[in-house]
Structures are given as C-alpha cells and as structure tokens.
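Reopening closed ticket. The problem is back. First fold of the pair:
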Amino acid sequence: MSDAQLLDPKNPSGPVKINNLHVRVDRDLCIGAATCIAVAPKTFLLDSEAKAIVIITAPDEDGDTLIDSARACPVAAIFIEDQNGNKIFPK
C-alpha cells in the first residue's frame, strides 16, 4: 500500500479526523476480520499485517456508516469520538 492512499501516512490507523468525527483503530485489538471494510469500504483497508487502516476516500463516507462499521467490529477495535472529544463508540 502506498502512503498516497492513506488519509494520514504518519498514522495509518489513526487517530484521524473524518469530517466531524475522530476515528482510531486500536492495532493491538484489531484481528483483521474486515467487517469494517464490508460496512465502510471507502474508509478502511487491511495493511500487510492484516490491521485496519484509514484510506484517503474516508471523507466520502457518512458518519452513520462510520459508526456502523465500529459497531460491526467483532472486537470493538474502532474508536469514534465527536468533534468535542465525546465518545460515540464504544461508550
């Protein structure tokens, strides 16, 4: 994967700002199940270590889809906060 495809090459799994949400994938928790990709394919891909990373098309995804992708993760490895730092998922 080229750095050009990442939303933030320095932080491939976040934290990153996507529209009005802050998203982070906990790489220690991520098991590469790829349910996040099934729900939010414009936001996530798996890297060479089978860990979710955030791609440059993430801002094209709507907020509800991002939250649904976090809820779909079988190990709750995706953390989402609003623009004020309030936890949206997990609570």
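Second fold of the pair, where the issue appears:
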Amino acid sequence: MAHIGGDGGARGVVVRTHDPSGAPVVTLVGEIDISNAESLGATLDQLIGDETDHLVVDLAALEFMDSSGIAMLLRVAARVGTVEIRNPSNVVRRIIECTGLSDILPIERG
C-alpha cells in the first residue's frame, strides 16, 4: 500500500492485490487530481512492473478524480496490454464513456 499526497493537496492510496484469475488488481483510494496524479502514476508503474499484460483498476473507493487521473490511467494503459476498470462511480463511468475512452479503458460489466 502506498499513500500519496498531503500538504493541502489530494490524498490517494494505491493498493495492489490479485483477482481470482491471477490478474493484478490496483485499487485507487481517496482522490486523484493534479497535485498527486504524477506521484500516483509513478507508484502504479512500480507496483505493476514491466511484465504485466492485463491490469484491473478498482475505483470503488475513489472519491474524486479529475482529468489528471484520466490522463494517468491512459499512461498506464499505454504500458499494459489490457486495462480493465472495475467499480467506477457514476461520474467516472460517464467521463470514460462520454470522452470515447471506453475502448482504451473498458469498464467491467458485472
């Protein structure tokens, strides 16, 4: 688990686990904005390494994400073969769908 942020900026946490299929799952907790997106992205890069070809990003505990967070997810998607978004809030889901990014950041259908 990595805590990112502080000093008046957004506070975020990244937790890495695995789902039953063995795919790595990163859970983003808290907030992602311009004050911490770069640090969170660097932490994600370290957690997922170079050998990951499928990554699940769980957003169930994410309270806020601005365009910096979307840009961070796109950078991760460019490094990893497949990124799957799990449990986004309605607002995040709508942003991904309305911007036409659902092919790059597909949302898991439950």
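Update: turned out to be a display glitch only; the data is intact. The two ends are 26 Å apart (CA to CA). The first strand starts at residue 2 and ends at 5. Please close again.
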